Amino acid sequence: MDKSFLEKILHGFAEVAEDETGAFRLYRVPRALLPELGVRVNMRCYHPAGGELRFRMKEKPVRFKFRRTTEPDHPLFINQTVFPVGVFHGDFQYTWLALLEGDNEFEIKPFPDRTGLMHRTQRRFNPELTRIILPPFIDLRIVDWEGDMEPPRPGDCPEKRLLSYGSSITQGAYGQLGNETYPAVIARELGIDVCNLGFGGGATMEPAIAEWIVSRTDWTIATLEMGVNVFNRPLEEFRKMVKKFLAVFAADPLKRPVFTLDMLPFGEEFGDNQEVKAKAAAYRRIVREETAATGKPWMYPLEYASLIQASDFSTDLLHPAAHAFQAIGHGLAEQIKHKNLSILN
Fold first, then answer.
1. What does CATH list as the number for 161-344?
2. I need a labelling partner for 231 at 20 to 30 A (CA). Which of 122, 242, 275, 294 fits?
């Protein structure tokens, strides 16, 4: 297996490493950075979060073998037994494939001869590009592949890209489909690409990950979700964390637009606990205040907490139910559109 070819067809990953069995594990952050990041980022960085394989097919089918492993020490958020993998040709859905525990081998056939018609309605991706969209939460490895493929050509994918940092909500907890996380919905509505850096339990705003994100030149705009994974911190400590984190983006020499998000409402806020309600309101106010305090015209707070209602949550009253990601993504995309950013034109 040619690791260098695999790296050329992957999207949304920072590094590929071979495990003890010869299968390839995919990391969304460089492994060298992991010692500087929290334990939850280390646990979730190899979950795909909607990362993709993108390639052009020739005349014959291609085959991929994926390995889904269990994580007894790091349970997922739901009792899910089947994880769907999406197969798209450009923007057009072809099929969904179920990833069962263990090794799964899939054959993907060449696209039917309708690309001429689909080119007329192409919005983001060339319909001659095959996209395998991976699930949000799963320990997935690539065991093998075969077939005549080539990496994406210039113009096959959008040049502009949203990068989204955040918690399990950003990663897509309680959702099954990698293309239906709220960052994926935002990107689809804006007509751009997406890179998901959501980490379940791991949005702890380390300066090291902020510096790595800013050092990247492959994104156009970013969203930063802050608060929910550090809600146990005192208010002043949280303010210092937000200030330090945002300072890195405020110093971005490319001055790329950054949109800050605070917290969706959660369980105890739906009850009568006034102390929790007051602290949550203060957390949200701190994110808005510290965004403004950067003094940078490319830093924008977005309204986040009011985008869904209590019945849109899962039973843990923390994570949105699967259907709610559409409303969240649409609401955030509309706010971004209203900024009339020239960089997105």
1. 3.40.50.1110
2. 294
| Model pTM above 0.85 | yes
- CATH number for the domain whose boundaries are 3-150: 2.60.120.260
For residue 111, the model assigns a pLDDT of: 73
pLDDT at residue 117, rounded to an integer: 64
* Tokens read off for 250: 């405020």
With CA atoms as reference, report the closest residue to 10 among 44, 51, 46, 49.
Answer: 51
Q: What is the DSSP string of 294-317?
A: T--TTEEE---TTSS-GGGB-TTS
Q: Classify the phi-psi angles of 80: left when phi > 0, otherwise alpha if psi is within -120 to 50, otherwise beta.
A: beta
Q: What are the boundaries of each domain within the chain?
A: 3-150, 161-344
Residues of the chain with pLDDT under 50: 74
Contacts (Cβ under 8 Å, ≥6 apart) of 18: 3, 24, 25
> 9 by DSSP, 3-state: which?
helix
pLDDT at 118: 66
pLDDT of residue 185: 97
